């Protein structure tokens, strides 16, 4: 990806004298000093250890070599996948329902991800759905925009990892029409990327996301006719998906172990065979 050079000392952005414009559980969000329509997101230094792993993560989760940057990897990967899908129209702006990414930059809080700033007409950060709900400003137009957003995500097959109403913002200035943009929580989280592989499984996940978002907003989704027989039995369906996920994950692990065992075994065995063959040859020597 392009490294946006801010022409700052040593190409490193010093954010120590800048107050974050927003904060999440994991990241500090700063305004880009030279590009007013961009933001820089860094991982909060207080949750990262000296080796670059998150202190809040278990040892198992910390096995990923990207460490605290795995969230960036996940988002960049999903963004690139969506851009690749629109490769044919590569000269056109992709207009995705997820925030646009512009590369990474060095800061004195580690690597920063440069993203599009979703703002209101007055240049402030666009409100999240959580803020709209909390302040009692949630209106029908916000809900219509949310429905369009979900439809767009279904049609593009966007994979989400951690989506809730704090990670979706509402704006009317991005494209000149009311819309929702996901600013965090996209990309595949599973070890085996089944949602990326299976459109159907991803659609079922999007169904659950839609239900969760509506529940968090305290609104009821218009019930549509179930698309499949499975939709009538949500519990067995969820159970089946869960077991499929788990068996895929464990199945691939067993397969990898089996392959490793087989290749090591063959390698050792071949040495043994050579030894045996030499002994036999020596015995039959006149
Ligand atoms: N691109 C963006 N445009 C507008 N606001 C944003 C953007 N990115 C983040 N924010 C604001 O910053 C907050 C924290 O950012 P987020 O990326 O969600 O951090 P975390 O990964 O720690 O949850 C968000 O809830 C939102 O209010
Ligand atoms: Mg967030």
Low-confidence stretches: 223-234
CATH class of the largest domain equals Alpha Beta
Could you say what the CATH architecture of the largest domain is?
A: 2-Layer Sandwich
Bound molecules: adenosine-5'-diphosphate, magnesium ion
Arithmetic mean of pLDDT? 84
Number of domains: 2
General form: globular
Number of helices: 6
Distance between the termini: 70 Å
Note the beta-strand portion: 5-15%
Helix and strand pattern: EEEEHEEHHEEHHH
Strand order of the largest sheet: 1-5-6-4-3-2
Q: Outline the biggest β-sheet.
A: 6 strands, mixed
Which structural category fits the helices and strands?
alpha+beta
CATH topology of the largest domain: Phosphorylase Kinase, domain 1
What is the alpha-carbon Rg in Å?
A: 25 Å
By DSSP, the count of extended strands is 8
| Helix coverage percent | 25-40%
Multimerization status: single chain
């Amino acid at each position: 990806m392009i490294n946006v050079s801010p022409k700052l000392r040593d190409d490193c952005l010093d954010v120590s004298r800048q107050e974050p414009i927003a904060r999440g559980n994991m990241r500090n969000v700063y305004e880009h000093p030279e590009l007013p329509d961009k933001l820089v997101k860094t991982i909060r230094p207080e949750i990262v250890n000296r080796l670059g792993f998150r202190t809040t993560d278990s040892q198992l989760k910390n096995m990923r070599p990207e460490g605290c940057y795995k969230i960036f990897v996940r988002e960049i990967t999903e963004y690139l996948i969506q851009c690749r899908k629109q490769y044919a129209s590569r000269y056109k702006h992709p207009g995705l329902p997820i925030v646009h990414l512009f590369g990474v930059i060095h800061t004195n809080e580690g690597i920063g991800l440069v993203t599009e700033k979703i703002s209101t007409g007055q240049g402030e950060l666009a409100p999240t759905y959580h803020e709209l709900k909390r302040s009692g400003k949630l209106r029908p137009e916000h809900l219509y925009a949310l429905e369009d957003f979900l439809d767009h995500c279904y049609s593009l097959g966007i994979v989400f990892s951690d989506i809730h109403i704090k990670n979706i913002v509402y704006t009317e200035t991005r494209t000149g029409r009311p819309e929702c943009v996901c600013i965090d929580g996209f990309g595949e989280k599973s070890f085996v990327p089944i949602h990326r592989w299976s459109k159907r499984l991803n659609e079922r996940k999007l169904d659950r996301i839609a239900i969760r978002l509506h529940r968090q907003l305290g609104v009821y989704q218009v019930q549509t006719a179930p698309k499949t027989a499975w939709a009538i039995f949500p519990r067995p369906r969820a159970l089946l998906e869960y077991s499929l996920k788990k068996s895929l994950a464990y199945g691939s692990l067993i397969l990898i172990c089996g392959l490793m065992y087989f290749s090591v075994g063959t390698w050792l065995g071949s040495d043994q065979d050579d030894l045996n063959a030499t002994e036999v040859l020596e015995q039959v020597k006149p």
